[in-house]
Write a sequence for this structure.
């Protein structure tokens, strides 16, 4: 009937639903991949793995969790103490969230270093940023569910951002909370959203991978490769094996965290039940939000601009939004920093700046930290606007090889 | 709209046709129907009737000595009730409006000078400020470092406005009703 290599029951199914060729072309022998991918290319599939872990453990936790202001905190303790392996499910889920962000951040920085966001992969990049935004919403709504002090006050502070909207701010905040303050209604709806968003992420991930397969993976040289030449190898078995190896390393780190340091990433105050009458003396978000938190708090120039609170919120949102347009700010045709000596230096300065903002985000707004936060924020935006633009326009790049093989062998044999 | 259409008899027709009118009408009615169907899904997230019913809170203030504060809940929000000292009142009244980010006199923020009643939510991002702290002897918000004076007015830090004074009335000398207005 059809022209394909499958026989027997697989052939029968393939004739009616070409799922085997779809899989083969996605992650099998049919996907031609550049042969020089380094370990930084492991983090996409690792992120997918982390997402699956979160969904599985999340569905299990939902079987025991009680989404009400009266019962949420106790149901978490019930999971931790009474449910068989409940402690394991919860610690895997809470630490898995942290590691998911770690993996995704590395994946994003990989994209920035190797110019993965450049034409023709702009939409692929933007879909990835949508996933990041959805992850942030999922993480935030999830952090509220244990209904400890940090949960409650994180929910209060984050929903209060919207009060900065001129005119209708208070109405929007009450609409989000379903009450005059963070309350039972807030917890219930956050639980509903926390269950919904991961499935939206799955949907966008599928589109992200679809977009990836149109032009294929980039590579550390940042040059276009022709499939079927000596520059490419089939995804399976070469990169399935490499990804599995990376996954093994990831699982070891994951296990050390879960079994030896399960509360390393969490805050002791969240083991105090939510109390609407007392704010903890020092509110800190989870580590993966710290740079954004620092940007939020950086805008304090009341005397220069009116409504600094609104501008703080705009700056924080802008720190992600700016990434959506960098394919059009950095116009250099050369993707990889390997051939952009000056950009490479600025890339690492930017990474250091993000780390600085992360440190500032964990500190009280006081003394030197105020100025460091303002400096870090200003530099962050300077990098992604002016510096990227100027580098793209004026940097003298090094010559690109014609193919991945060229630096190694002189003439390029074509596999027929 | 297409400049040229067809009349009902199929002949070429200049200008707006019956078909154009039907398209616009269908689109408009469909749009209204979709909007009407979506609105309940948006409005359900607003505070429900039982929450909206929490209009007033009565508080007995006879046991609060000079220099003491209590925090009560009104509409699920903390409300500070402070029995201010002479010195606090004097300080608050003596502050020139030019020094204030959100200029309000102390007189406009109280009914009786010794009683300061405010919603205890920092106007920055909603934390609860701590009393008798900060550089102005009033309240200090630990979250992002806003300082309020003895009248609850913002003096320093990221908060944009003064602590909110809710509607309240005195019922005799010993009781206040938060959320009620003078008739």
């Amino acid at each position: 009937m059809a022209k394909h290599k499958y026989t027997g029951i697989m052939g029968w199914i393939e004739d009616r639903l070409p799922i085997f060729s779809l899989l083969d072309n996605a992650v099998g022998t049919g996907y031609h991949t550049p042969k020089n991918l380094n370990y930084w290319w492991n983090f996409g599939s690792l992120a997918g793995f982390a997402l699956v872990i979160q969904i599985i453990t999340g569905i299990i936790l939902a079987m025991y969790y009680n989404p009400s202001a009266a019962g949420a905190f106790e149901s978490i303790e019930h999971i931790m103490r009474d449910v068989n392996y409940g402690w394991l499910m919860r610690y895997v889920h809470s630490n898995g969230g942290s590691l998911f962000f770690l993996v995704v951040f590395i994946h994003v920085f990989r994209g920035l270093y190797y110019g993965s966001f450049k034409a023709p992969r702009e939409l692929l990049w933007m879909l990835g940023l949508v996933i990041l935004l959805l992850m942030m919403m999922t993480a935030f709504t999830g952090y509220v569910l244990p209904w400890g002090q940090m949960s409650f006050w994180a929910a209060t502070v984050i929903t209060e951002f919207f009060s900065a909207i001129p005119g209708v701010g208070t109405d929007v905040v009450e609409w989000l909370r379903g009450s005059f303050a963070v309350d039972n209604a807030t917890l219930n709806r956050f639980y509903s959203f926390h269950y919904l968003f991961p499935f939206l992420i799955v949907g966008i991930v599928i589109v992200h991978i679809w977009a990836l397969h149109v032009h294929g993976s980039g590579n550390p040289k940042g040059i276009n490769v022709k499939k079927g030449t000596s520059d490419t190898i089939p995804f399976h078995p070469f990169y399935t094996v490499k990804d599995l190896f990376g996954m093994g390393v990831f699982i070891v780190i994951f296990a050390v965290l879960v079994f030896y340091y399960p509360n390393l990433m969490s805050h002791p105050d969240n083991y105090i039940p939510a109390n609407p009458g007392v704010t903890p003396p020092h509110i800190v978000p989870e580590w993966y939000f710290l740079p954004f938190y620092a940007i939020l708090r950086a805008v304090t120039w009341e005397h220069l601009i009116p409504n600094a609170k609104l501008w703080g919120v705009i700056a924080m949102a802008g720190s992600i939004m700016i990434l959506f347009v960098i394919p059009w700010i950095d116009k250099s045709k050369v993707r990889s920093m390997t051939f952009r000596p000056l950009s490479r230096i600025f890339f690492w300065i930017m990474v250091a700046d993000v780390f600085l903002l992360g440190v500032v985000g964990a500190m009280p707004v006081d003394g030197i930290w105020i100025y460091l936060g303002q400096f870090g924020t200003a530099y962050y935006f300077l990098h992604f606007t002016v510096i990227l633009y100027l580098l793209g326009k004026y940097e003298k790049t090094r010559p690109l090889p014609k193919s991945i093989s060229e630096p190694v062998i002189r003439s390029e044999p074509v596999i027929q | 709209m297409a400049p040229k259409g067809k009349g009902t008899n199929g002949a070429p027709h200049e200008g707006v046709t019956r078909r154009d009118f039907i398209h616009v009408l269908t689109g408009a009615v469909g749009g209204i129907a979709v909007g009407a169907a979506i609105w309940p899904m948006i409005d359900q997230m607003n505070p429900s009737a039982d929450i909206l019913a929490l209009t007033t809170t009565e508080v007995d203030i006879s046991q609060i000595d000079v220099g003491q504060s209590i925090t009560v809940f009104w509409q699920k929000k903390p409300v500070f009730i402070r029995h201010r000292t002479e010195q606090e009142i004097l300080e608050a009244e003596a502050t020139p409006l030019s020094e204030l980010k959100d200029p309000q006199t102390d007189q406009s923020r109280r009914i009786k000078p010794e009683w300061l009643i405010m919603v205890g939510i920092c106007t920055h991002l909603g934390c609860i400020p701590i009393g008798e702290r900060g550089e102005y002897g009033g309240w200090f918000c630990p979250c992002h470092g806003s300082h309020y004076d003895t009248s609850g007015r913002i003096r320093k830090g990221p908060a944009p406005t003064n602590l909110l004074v809710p509607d309240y009335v005195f019922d005799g000398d010993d009781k206040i009703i938060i959320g009620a207005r003078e008739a």
In short: The radius of gyration of chain A is 24 Å. Residues 184-215 of chain A form the longest helix (32 residues). Chain A has a mean pLDDT of 92.
